[in-house]
């Protein structure tokens, strides 16, 4: 890839079209190449009804963009000997013992949680979880994290840990493990292991009402609709729905969801992603850092499009040709249901982050592909 700092002419029409076609309300996009930010800009509205423009410092409900942040913190704890990635979850959560459908109670390890190979699920992809009243960490409920763990443990595992892959509440379980292992709240762990060493100021689990949070919207025709409390938003295929509670981020009594509960600004999330890419200042030990960019999903697992598996923190691209993407083998990528998408291409020294307030356009919509393709075309 050649180096270029002129992404604005290529990306300006991409965002203009998404806004004009009313697929998007607002966003902040950041791109870096070889460690230099070559594009960073806000587009559209943070709140359409009050005509509040989006700004680069606007805060977003991060949804699953929480996961790479919590992953980094967990790996730091592993480096310090506080967590053992191959140890059983019951070492820290003795009552968390979900069973297979046949009644067998297998061992679930920290590694299984980090890679979504534990046999767990989300409510939006598993009816048993809905029947148990399990929270996905996006909705608002009147019980705490440990009651949610009790309900998760009461639902049958989908497969023997390590023998399958399914996107799940594993990171919420891991958050509880981290609390028990350190004797601190998950918020404090994130502050001490991620925010403070990286000098991040805007990450958290509970926001104040006066903070500048983007208003969330859901794709609809003729334009996105403002989200309401515990609103069910169908995925584009119409099969499953996620239940959103926009007020959850302001609720001091809402449990800290390690998979979906954080808020933050683009700059801070971007620093986390760049830390994944570069391991600047040996943020993780070299031995542990080498474990990040690998595929831990079984070959038969369906992790999004063909050619993708799963590593620590996101999906791992092991076959670009099969996937039909310009991204390099070894790319790590994921998103968040409030409307976010990110990827790290270590081979091309490329990091791309899109935070939007529009579900699901900013996560899996045309906008994500248009940005990706424009970046690679210009830097080719």
Description:
This protein has 380 residues and is an alpha+beta fold. The chain has helices at residues 8-20, 66-79, 110-115, 127-131, 145-154, 170-182, 186-198, 266-278, 286-289, 320-323, 361-364, 366-379; strands at 26-33, 36-47, 52-53, 59-61, 217-218, 225-226, 231-234, 241-244, 263-265, 308-310, 315-317, 332-336, 340-345, 350-356, 358-359. It has a domain at 8-62 and 196-220 and 258-379: Beta-lactamase (3-Layer(aba) Sandwich). It contains twelve helices and 15 strands. Strands 3-2-1-14-13-12-11-10 form an eight-stranded antiparallel sheet, sandwiched between helices. A hairpin with a 4-residue loop joins strand 2 and strand 3. Helix 1 (8-20) packs antiparallel against helix 12 (366-379), helix 2 (66-79) packs parallel to helix 6 (170-182) and helix 2 crosses helix 7. The radius of gyration is 20 Å and the shape is globular. The N and C termini lie close together (5 Å).
Number of strands: 15
What is the global morphology? Answer: globular
Q: Percentage of helical residues? A: 25-40%
Strand-residue fraction? 15-25%
Q: Quickly name the level 1 CATH class of one domain.
A: Alpha Beta
The CATH superfamily of one domain is known as DD-peptidase/beta-lactamase superfamily
How would you spell out the order of helices and strands? HEEEEHHHHHHEEEEEHHEEHEEEEHH
Head-to-tail CA distance between termini: 5 Å
| CATH fold category name of one domain | Beta-lactamase
Low-confidence stretches: none
The main pleated sheet reads as: 8 strands, antiparallel
């Amino acid at each position: 890839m050649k180096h270029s700092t002129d992404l604005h002419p290529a990306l300006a029409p991409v965002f203009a079209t998404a806004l004009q076609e009313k697929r998007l309300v607002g966003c902040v996009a950041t791109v870096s190449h070889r460690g230099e930010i070559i594009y960073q800009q806000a587009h559209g509205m943070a709140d359409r009804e009050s005509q509040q423009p989006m700004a680069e410092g606007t805060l977003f409900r991060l949804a699953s963009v929480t996961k790479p942040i919590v992953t980094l913190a967990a790996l730091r704890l592993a480096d310090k000997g506080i967590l053992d990635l191959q140890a059983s979850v019951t070492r820290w959560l003795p009552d968390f013992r979900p069973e297979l459908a046949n009644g067998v109670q297998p061992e679930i390890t920290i590694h299984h949680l980090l890679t979504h190979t534990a046999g767990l699920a989300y409510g939006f992809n598993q009816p048993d979880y809905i029947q148990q009243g399990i929270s996905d960490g996006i909705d608002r409920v009147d019980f705490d994290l440990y009651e949610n763990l009790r309900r998760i443990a009461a639902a049958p595992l989908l497969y023997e840990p390590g023998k399958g892959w399914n996107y799940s509440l594993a990171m919420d379980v891991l958050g509880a493990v981290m609390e028990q292992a350190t004797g601190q709240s998950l918020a404090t762990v994130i502050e001490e292991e991620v925010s403070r060493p990286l000098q991040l100021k805007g990450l958290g689990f509970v926001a104040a009402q006066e903070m500048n949070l983007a208003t969330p919207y859901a794709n609809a025709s003729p334009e996105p609709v403002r989200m309401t409390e515990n609103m069910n938003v169908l995925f584009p295929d119409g099969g499953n729905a996620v239940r959103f509670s926009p007020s959850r981020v302001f609720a001091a009594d809402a449990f800290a969801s390690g998979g979906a509960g954080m808020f933050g600004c683009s700059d801070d999330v971007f620093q986390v992603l760049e830390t994944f890419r570069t391991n600047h200042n040996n943020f993780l030990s070299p031995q542990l850092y080498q474990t990040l960019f690998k595929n831990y999903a079984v070959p038969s697992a369906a992790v999004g499009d063909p050619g993708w598996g799963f590593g620590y923190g996101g999906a791992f691209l092991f076959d670009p040709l099969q996937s039909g993407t310009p991204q390099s083998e070894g790319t790590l990528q994921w998103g968040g249901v409030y409307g976010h998408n990110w990827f790290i291409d270590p081979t091309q020294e490329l990091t791309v982050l899109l935070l939007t307030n529009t579900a699901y356009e900013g996560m899996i919509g045309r906008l994500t592909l248009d940005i990706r393709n424009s970046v690679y075309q210009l830097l080719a």
